């Protein structure tokens, strides 16, 4: 199923397949084996050129993509990423993960992903608007509220979603919920910016509750977080609200370490500065919120080997941001819970470290949750936004937050119970494998729909 030169997709494919094979699913239900071959090939891949004009009046051209991976459960759903590293392998890996992540939300949404190798950094608003209109002039042929509903991702925030939505509306002469992450005054949902970070913390809250039989919570926990975008910011704010201490954040140039904790005021300063594409080095060196703070900036480093003793690690930046060696360092630092706010945040080597420690212990070692489960809160609220658009209503912040929390609790319970049901492990004292539970639960739901619709026979 994996083509040459697709290392990211190969990793996602192997991670899913290996965890399913290391369970009793195919033994109990051998008919599911044939689904792997079908579900691992996208239903459709759209690739196109994007020709646009910069502020100097010069022609520029980029590659645009939309991977429509699986629609068994509903319209294709997944973000658009504008970043120079975007290629087909990365989008296939993200789309593949999205199939099973979306299944875990319990909502009727399929899996897809798209974007372009365009870098919005350093571009004017006019350049970004012209690029978005050129990009949508082709993408609009392939999406729609009942077909494919993209959202934002890296490089595609509220500004870009606004331009893309405006372009679609003009091209199609139709106001419809074709994109999620819209502005609150024109179809957006409350809690959408916060959803992935909040949902991540709600999921880990259940992990802590289950592992300690309700005796512990986030209160008093030291939490290392990577990234400094929306996911990391709102995860950090929710951890602080629940009584935890956030000891790190990071960006592509380095990390900040704060043994005594990063404050809500500092997170607000980071959020404001990141809108202007400021680095953490610039922020910590010039913003007043950091002037009298013992926060330490470490250039060119991820936080994991620098945070000291911690209880929780939340990788929330990008794929493969915890290596095997860094995983060992987290275990040595006493980390008990690792949950991915980013997609495929841990390498296979890191997952092997976490899972090896978990499987060989009596319940006190590290417990790992994959991104397809732990960070599904973002797409869940995107799905709730689609529902609000269809009804032409807007729910309150409390309503959306409550629905998000219920989705994350149900997702955790589903992963936990599925892991127990299909476990092939001999150590009955260890905690169940949430990565196996997530992969199997998502896969089975999609496979059943594919059988019912005749996609597999």
From TrEMBL:
> Which parts of the sequence bind substrate?
77, 98, 101, 152, 382
Record keywords: NAD, NADP, Nucleotide-binding, Oxidoreductase
Q: Which residues cross the membrane?
A: none
Task: Give me the residues that bind NAD(+), please.
Answer: 196, 230
- Which catalytic residues are annotated? 113 (proton donor)
Annotated site location: Important for catalysis: 153
Q: Which Pfam families match?
A: ELFV_dehydrog, ELFV_dehydrog_N
**Gene Ontology molecular-function annotations:** glutamate dehydrogenase (NADP+) activity; nucleotide binding
Domain Glutamate/phenylalanine/leucine/valine/L-tryptophan dehydrogenase C-terminal span(s) in chain numbering: 189-454
Report the SMART domains cross-referenced here: ELFV_dehydrog
Gene Ontology biological process:
glutamate biosynthetic process
Record-level GO cellular component terms: cytosol
Q: How does it assemble?
A: Homohexamer.
Which family does the record assign?
Answer: Belongs to the Glu/Leu/Phe/Val dehydrogenases family.
- What name does this protein carry? Glutamate dehydrogenase
Q: Which organism is it from?
A: Komagataella pastoris
- Mind giving the lineage of the organism this protein is from? Eukaryota, Fungi, Dikarya, Ascomycota, Saccharomycotina
Point out the gene that encodes the protein: GDH3
């Amino acid at each position: 199923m994996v083509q040459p030169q697709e290392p990211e997709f190969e990793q996602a494919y192997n991670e899913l397949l290996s965890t399913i094979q290391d369970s009793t699913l195919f033994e109990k239900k051998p008919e599911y084996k044939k689904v792997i071959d079908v579900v691992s090939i996208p239903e459709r891949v759209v690739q196109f050129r994007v020709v646009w004009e910069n502020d100097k009046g010069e022609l520029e051209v980029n590659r645009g993509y939309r991977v429509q991976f699986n629609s068994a459960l509903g319209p294709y759903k997944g973000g658009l990423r504008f970043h120079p590293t975007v290629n087909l392998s990365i989008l296939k890996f993200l789309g593949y993960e999205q199939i099973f992540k979306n299944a875990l939300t319990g909502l009727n949404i399929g899996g897809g992903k798209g974007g372009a190798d365009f870098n919005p950094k350093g571009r004017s608003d006019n350049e970004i608007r012209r690029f978005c209109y050129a990009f949508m002039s082709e993408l609009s042929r392939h999406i729609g509220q009942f077909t494919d509903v993209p959202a934002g991702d890296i490089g595609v925030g509220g500004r870009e979603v606004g331009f893309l939505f405006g372009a679609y509306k003009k091209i199609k002469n139709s106001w419809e919920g074709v994109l999620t992450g819209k502005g609150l005054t024109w179809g957006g949902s409350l809690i959408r910016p916060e959803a992935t970070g909040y949902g991540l913390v709600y999921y880990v809250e259940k992990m802590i509750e289950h592992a300690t039989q309700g005796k512990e919570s986030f209160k008093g926990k030291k939490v290392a977080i990577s990234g400094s975008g929306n996911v990391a910011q709102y995860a950090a704010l929710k951890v602080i609200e629940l009584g935890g201490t956030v000891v790190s954040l990071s960006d592509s140039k380095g990390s900040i370490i704060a043994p005594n904790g990063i404050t809500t005021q500092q997170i607000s300063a980071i959020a404001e500065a990141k809108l202007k594409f400021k680095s953490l080095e610039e922020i910590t060196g010039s913003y007043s919120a950091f002037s009298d703070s013992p926060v330490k900036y470490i250039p060119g480093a991820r936080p994991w080997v620098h945070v000291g003793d911690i209880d929780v690690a939340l990788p929330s930046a990008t794929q493969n941001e915890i290596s095997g060696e860094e995983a060992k360092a987290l275990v040595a630092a006493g980390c008990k819970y690792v949950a991915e706010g980013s997609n495929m945040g841990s390498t296979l080597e890191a997952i092997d470290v976490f899972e090896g420690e978990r499987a060989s212990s009596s319940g006190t070692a590290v417990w790992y949750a994959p991104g397809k489960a732990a960070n599904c809160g973002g797409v869940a609220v995107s799905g709730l936004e689609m529902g609000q658009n269809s009804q032409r209503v807007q729910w309150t912040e409390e309503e959306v937050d409550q629905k998000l929390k219920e989705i994350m609790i149900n997702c955790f319970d589903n992963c936990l119970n599925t892991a127990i049901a299909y476990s092939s492990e001999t150590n009955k004292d260890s905690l169940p494998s949430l990565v196996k539970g997530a992969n199997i639960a998502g896969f089975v739901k999609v496979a059943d729909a594919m059988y019912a619709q005749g996609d597999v026979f």
